[in-house]
Please model this.
Amino acid sequence: MDQQPAIEIERLGGFAGFGGPGAHLRSRGTLPWSQLPAHERQQLEQLLASRAAPPATTVADGFRYRITTHHLGHPVTIEIAEEHVPATLRDCVQDELI
Model:
């Protein structure tokens, strides 16, 4: 496992269109790898290693999350449905007006 200093996460979509073009709200957060519980760290490592988003349940106006970090020494960005995001990461996201 890589011991990276931070994981960046951004919430996209939903009814308000977070993070989309012309949006006036942005939802994002940063969390050190060390603050993820072991089971969530393992879950995230599996998602990063596969680099393929697991299938999402179809939810009207559902959120997607863009997660960026380093994995095996390389920068990696994935987008996944809210239901697949580790809770600790999801909870570190904060909304801001832009």
About this structure: The chain has a mean pLDDT of 81. The chain is about 20% helix and 35% strand.
